[in-house]
Amino acid sequence: MKLVFTQKPVGLAVFGLIFAGVVSLYTGVSDLDTGQIVRAFLYGGEHDFVVNHYRLPRLVLAMLVGTGLGLSGVLVQGVIRNPLASPDLMGISAGAGLAATSLLVIFPQAPLWALPVVAIVGGLLAAMMIYATAMLTKPTPARLALTGVAISAFLSSGIDFLLIVHPIEVNTAMVWLTGSLWGRNWQQFPLLFAAVCLLIPVAFWLAWRLDVLGSGELIARGLGVHVTQVQVLALIVSVVLASVSVSVAGTISFVGLLSPHLARLLVGSKHHILIPMAALIGAILVLVSDILARGLIPPTEFPAGVITSVIGAPYFIYLLSRYKGW
């Protein structure tokens, strides 16, 4: 039985995100007090770079990446009606990662705007591969998830091949592929912010349609929902959000899987509330992972993707164990 809290969980999630954001400003090699952080905000000065050009952009980007991945996960689960679906497990993140890695190692001087564009193309191609493969067999939830894992592994082998053929750029690519916000700054902000802000209203437009679709395609058509249009639009929005997030932070795993599940536990399955809750939880997961990544053993920094994998992999195994028919 699902556990649904009634004490304003969205408000608690917002408070948790604000609290994590404040902690993020204090976390790092430089030990700053509140006065130094406030003075850096107001006047710049000695700690201007650390606060305004290192910690603050990482904070903002972590929230936006987590929001994008959380929204992507809830949409792909809603349209496929598969609790095992997520952009990284379905191979979408790997497709975006392969395309972006190809650009990084083959055309290292490419303009910054080209990376998210190439990542989106890679994510869409990966989604098409999954769809074509699924049509060959009767897709059950676990089988579809395992198909995505297989395609993800295939695409990841392409990434490994690129790194072997182009060893000079291996360090830059590896930091990016493990999922990290290290070295990110305000340059990555505009496109990611625009994508998230433009696609959130689309996600809300899809909300009640996904609720109706969850009752079955025949019922949805009877209620006037254009099923194919909703499915295609939801998948495109999911792929774009995941791909743009991957283009900024690399392959941060399991956020798109965990966020919708935790959101359903807290607020139920109605998409009008599930969508903002999944976005908030995704933002919290990525931000907390980034805090732990740079705060556990400073000055050593772990990739944030390692932290999310440690949390998400056991949960994915638990979900697989619940499906006996695959």
UniProtKB/TrEMBL annotation:
> Mind telling me which PANTHER family this protein's record contains?
FE(3+) DICITRATE TRANSPORT SYSTEM PERMEASE PROTEIN FECD-RELATED, FERRIC ENTEROBACTIN TRANSPORT SYSTEM PERMEASE PROTEIN
Q: Where are the bilayer-spanning segments?
A: 12-29, 59-80, 89-107, 113-132, 144-168, 188-208, 274-296, 302-320
Presence of keyword Cell membrane: yes
| Subcellular location as annotated | Cell membrane
Which SUPFAM superfamilies does this entry report, sorted A to Z? ABC transporter involved in vitamin B12 uptake, BtuC
Show the CDD domains listed in the entry.
TM_ABC_iron-siderophores_like
One Pfam family here: FecCD
Please state what the protein is called: Iron chelate uptake ABC transporter family permease subunit
Main localization of the protein described in the UniProt heading: membrane
Biological classification of the source? Bacteria, Pseudomonadati, Pseudomonadota, Gammaproteobacteria, Vibrionales
